[in-house]
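Quick one: co-fold with iron/sulfur cluster.
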Amino acid sequence: MTTTKTADVDGTLAQVYALASAGADIVRITCNDVDAAAGLAEIVPRSPVPIIADIHYQYRLALAALEAGVAGLRLNPGNIRKEDQIKTVARAASDAGVPIRVGVNAGSLDKKLLAEYGGPVAEALVRSAEKEIGYLEDVGFHDIKISVKHSNVPTMVESYRMLAERIEYPLHLGVTEAGPPPGGLIKSVAGISTLLLEGIGDTIRFSLTADPVEEAKAGRQLLEYLGLRERTTVDLIACPSCGRAEVDVIDVAERARAALEEAALPIQVAVMGCVVNGPGEAREADIGIAAGRGKGHLFIKGQVVRVVPEEEMVEALLEEAERLVAEGVDARLAAADGDAGRVAEETRIELLGTQGDPNQTAARRAAVAEVAGREPSR
Ligand code: SF4
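Sure, here it is.
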């Protein structure tokens, strides 16, 4: 959702473009007065993504937003409560072929429901949605999407589960007023992921107290990490580091993240602190780098393909990642430095010699032999 004044057409459009570039498929914009509605009329035809008008209190602004050509309306049942007004909007939306999201929010729930239930509990949120759906269906309107947002994660999850059992319409998920990162991100991921993994939810929004571009990025990344969207950006995995680390993993991972994100490569990249365990543990990654004795060991699908000085490892990783995306895994494995594997193995054995075997393989083999009463055949 944009944070600019909607009447500021150029400023709002700049934010819409930034959100779309960060991964937003649709953008919501407030329509809180007549100037905002007029702004929407200019924004909609120039937007790269569908625009949803956010309507509170004044049903006439929903009608104005429809005139402006928006692709969807969000109505808050907590503050547009008159049945005839809601039905008027529904008829106009039907004529325009525009869907309505019934956006129930715990913070602005109908006072009667609040009094009846003693607070914004799940049943109260769902009842509010059902009542609004009833008004829309009364005039033959069924192009509906629902949200029942709450700032408390367990209550949010309970509300959506209840709603999913009772209605067939698509659901828009979100933890409302989640706050600034990192807490806001954690709450949003917890609530939204729980539901998506249960097959509940059709669209999502992270409501962060932050630059809205961060919301779009986080939402997009979550969908990619859950396997619900094709990867369009880099997925950086990195070891947590430990006493074996041969390099400052946090610093290298941060520098790699910055370089790779700018390159926007759709691959999984691993940054590992040591060559003893790194290439093996990250063999599922498309490409990675592991440190050892002042060198960076570049590996593709677990196979070391190049060894570079440690200070050049991030640049080498970026260069190899770009070539991997352009040429493919087989071509880059075929182009591997024939000596890289040997150098990496020598470093690994050297580190094992000074630090010991992290997997304690020799000790475990000896223990197996002792329990079995004989030496293994190989
Ligand atoms: S890859 Fe090496 S440095 Fe990183 S956690 Fe594993 S053993 Fe430690």
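If it helps, DSSP finds 15 helices and twelve strands in the chain.
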